[in-house]
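[Protein data]
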Amino acid sequence: MAALETTIQRAGATGNIKATREDWLKLALETLISDGVERVRVLTLGQKLDVSRSSFYWYFKSRQDLLDQLLDYWRQTNTKFIVERARRPSATVIRGVMSIFECWVDERLFDPQLDFAIRAWARRSPAIRRALDEADEERVNAIRDMFMRHGYDEEDAFVRARVLYFMQIGYYSLELNEPMSSRLPHVAGYLRSFTGQEPPAEDVEDFSRYVEKTLSRNR
């Protein structure tokens, strides 16, 4: 959600506030995450933004148009960055998996709350269920392809990709809320389990530095 910057424009000497498209989208995303898709309503959002419904129709054709754009935003963040990280050139499979791990560290790359808001929405809508299934398949296939580039056969690569990806999704669904300081000492073990290879100490140290830098930036 950090990609959606709020920009408020003040109009005229009266001090009235005009909500921008980004304001509507940001509030709609926050509402989707906190209250579910049923609460993403034009009238409710307009009241919270203190603007009339006509402001909404400057930027969106309909409520469905807004919902479609929320879904597209989810695709262009959560799915896009996993796929990009999986496709990133890497000298070793350890480095390849570490690239994917970056998505679990930085919520600018993968927002778990948004992902589970979409999963909750999918329980109500067959169309969203299809979109979610397609996204899960795209993410797993990208990770599978990463393993195959490093010499794993297709079946082995597919299973490792599913274990890596669905373990993390399950981790979020359980809401374990484990601090990164508790998870970081196990990075070498995770890398060993996912790849079947012993991770070099310098790779683990590089990832630890990445985590520290990311957490420091996000504080």
Notes: The longest helix spans residues 63-87. The beta strands are 9-11, 16-18.
